[in-house]
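Entry 14. Ran structure prediction on the chain below.
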Amino acid sequence: MSARPCRSCGGKRLRPEALAVRVCGLGIMDVCAKNIGAAAEWVEQIDPDSEYNRNGVSAVHVNGTDAPATNGHKTGRRNGAKNGRKSSKNGAAAAPQVLSARDKTIANQVLKEIDGRVKFLMGIGLDYVTMDRTAQTLSGGEAQRCGWRRRSAPA
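Output, structure tokens:
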């Protein structure tokens, strides 16, 4: 038996609809490609209570479209800088946008899941790994720490 990537998702193991959703300029695969420490920092930065909540621009959009946000601004930001910020290599703003209350409601479950996984992996000292790694790619010690932590967690 050999592993082959799916033709429709390219091996990302998600439906095209899920891959089309972007939160603050990043798709789920972009976030999963970050190391755990960077993913934790990203989640903290888009929190509405953070210092970054000054622009009020809607940050959740699908397929990079310029759909109007509830506040009248455009949401698509594929082409680069916003508010004087330089653009990163993949077209997202260098500093993350902030989730509005509406967008936070939409992204709440995904962010909760990411936050839970990030906290779990940081708690066992694996903040250098990325979330897109499969269990088979972990070393014996890394896998052992994950298993130990799961078994010792309160039910």
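The first strand starts at residue 21 and ends at 23. Will compare against last week's run tomorrow.
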